Amino acid sequence: MTEPALLSVEGVAVDLPTPRGNLRAVDQVDLSVGAGRTLGVVGESGCGKTMLSRAILQLLPKKARLSGRVMFDGQDLVGLDPERLRKLRGRSLAVVFQDPMTSLNPVLTIGTQLIETLQEHLELDGNAAKRRSVELLAAVGIPAPEQRLMQYPHQLSGGMRQRVAIAIALSCEPKLLIADEPTTALDVTIQAQILDLLAREQRRRHMAMILITHDLGVVAGRTDEVAVMYAGRVVERAPTPALFKKMRMPYTEALLAAIPKIDAAPHTPLPAISGRPPDPTRPIQGCSFSPRCRYAAGQCHREKPSLAAAESLDHQYACFHPIEVAAGATA
Amino acid sequence: MLGFVARRLLYLVPVLIAVSLLTFLIASLLPGDLAYVILGDQATPEKVEALRHDMELDQPVWWRYISWLGHVLQGDFGRSFRTGQTVLQAVAERLPVSIELMLLAEIIGLAIGVPLAIACAVRSGSVFDRFMTGTAFGMLSVPAFLSAILLIYLFAVELRWLPATGYVPFREDPAGNLRFLVLPALTLAVAEWPGIMRVLRSDMIATLQEDYIALAKAKGLKASRILFVHALKPSSLTLVTVTGINIGRLIGGALIVETIFALPGIGRLLVGAIYTRDLIILQGVVLLVAAGFVLMNFVVDMLYAVLDPRIRHGHA
Amino acid sequence: MATLELSIGEEVAVTPVRRTRRLGPLFWAAIACMTFVFVVAALANLLPLPSPTDMDMLERRASMSAQHWLGTDGLGRDELARLIYGARISLIVGLCAPMIGITIGGALGMLAGYFRGRFETLVVGSMDVLLAFPPLILALAVTAYLGQSILNLTCILGVLGIPAFMRVARAATLVLARREFVIAAQALGATHARILLRELLPNVFLPLFAFFLLGVAVTIVAESALSFLGLGVPPPIPSWGTMIGEGRESLEIAPRLAFLPAVTMFLTVLSFNLVGDALRALTDPRQGAL
Fold this sequence. Notes:
A: alpha/beta; eight-stranded mixed β-sheet; 32% helix; globular
């Protein structure tokens, strides 16, 4: 890459003290996103992907300890002056949360929640802010936008609410949008629409985007690069086409196999990954995935593999027994 | 919205009727005779009989209730046989005093309780928080008359800053009026603020953990806006509830405080009627206070709907 | 009516954030205080005290001495004796009145929460009517009509507590009646009475008891307030409230006459509140629900 990345996460770790001991939610993660590019972060529930997004936004719970650097647009967000951080948030750095029913304030109108962001960061007056809000709602595909301004979140459907959340996130033309499982709480039929909306707006505004999801199918074709997370670490990272053609991590392979295929025969058993993600308060010696991995051998149980590059520099993975076959040919 | 209001109003009617019935029944179950009480030592069997007939006391209970209710609905609550004033006149004279007292008390209580609640919720778990919560809990065990004694001793006896008793109407002398009302209102407020603070604090702690607060922070809004608009509004529902529940206690407290500080309010009217066995006044005032209380609860219910739009649309 | 749907002392509905409460030293101190007051009041007859009603007009407002450990009041009566006998009165009213509430209110609440339907609407509606009267006003009105006596006072304060206990019992029953063990008992053909007595009552009793202790605190305060106005316990029977009321006149000369009963009352009420609150946090059945 010739220009420095817009967002560069360097050696970030998040520790949470719990009654049962220290919980390492995020373990030495390095990531980067260039301007106008989309990064997909994929992993099971509990792999630390949400904690990672909160760490980037500096919105961790009070007890959490963050180490490492989060370089955004040349500034380290960690330990940044709170007032300067506040000015960045919502303006250059925006977020869409998973469940729009809980992320929108139920007792404030849609209009209020849109206009306040515009007034805070762009210092628009009341009327200008209202006009802009109507434009934004129309842009995200909400019919009758003027009426919507006066409505409350519970009066809209789930898909509409998420569109509103996206409109709020896009309102000040952010440089980076973090979408944390934006479609998980929605009907399957709406999911594709929302993802298309995000992709379209991202292209139009030349905005960087991080798409966090547990579903590999979501990132296929919608992202430039994918990072797979497991137990708080990034275990494979590659440009999206490369990941799907030549995945190396057994975990990634298992994730892909777990996606139901439309052309499979009826009643084909869905290959689930056996076992459960490890308890973060009890770190496993050796590779975190080894208890569940089909290819696990001696070294896997003793040492933790580190992220290393394969034949191309931008495809990295952390495994002692990477797969050499292409995806689709697995049994 | 109108349908909602109408439905609530309809529910009021049977409650008000039941209240009037209960008030009347308590009065009719009087052991001893109203006529005797009125005539006092002038009572002779003939006079008693005549008075009873005049006052229709020889009619059956249900008849008297209907008759009384009929009078009440026309605005005739009866006349005190001590002072000759009608009940309505007596109440109208004294109502402003009581209302001013309760209003001031609630305002002071909110002025102390709400900021403390917000400060504690934001610093939840800190030394400050635990200290204030403990103090609030302790204060809940201090009833109005105790705080009255303490405040009187402190401000009227020792420091001599404020008068212990007395009253002057607002219209005549606003400054003097407030001077006389400070101690009584403070007494009531001291009993009010712990309840307000505890409930609002715990509600805000829960609210502050909600996703929409996280999003508000992620949007880069000012902390003051997040606290007062995003966090306080959903929690304000509980505030209204607490204030609503407290009205009953406030009325009772006002009664005590008026008696202690010799304020010419409804409470003192009631207590005076008890001392002098002026039962007509007693009956009328109890009915009016109870009816007013029911109506105030109704208003609180309406405020609910205004504050939480989900209730208005039947969602919550 | 939304406000009337919540019961009095309603921190229960509004504390969704729970930390595990362990019974700390404060709790045990409160228990000790409660027990102390209770024992002293119960054994009042056996203690070497002068009579609380003997007046000695020559020794009025005397300060502390060997003869009168805490001095005398405005009519020359021994302060310590009045304090202890006052404790007795406060405890008698304070314990008996909520018992009326817990038995009648608890029963009504359990039945309403279990059988639902018209019966429930009737019960809740009648409680609403009772609650339409500001409590102190009603207590005053009734004692005015029926006359001042400890019995009347206890009865009216007891009746005033019924709606609150009804609500607690009903809320607990509503939660518990939907749990598996009740459905299982019904499936096994148990009669209503058996379910109510054997399955529900033991579980509903705990939150009710916690509320009972809070009720004691509230009743002591209410009785004292009425006695303070001279409308509660009839003189010359000593009560903390009457003592504070009488002490008010001597605030300039002998403030201890008002403050001694005030402090004792405060500590007693605080103890009941602490214990009741701690127990309630531990036994609220809603904690275990969905």
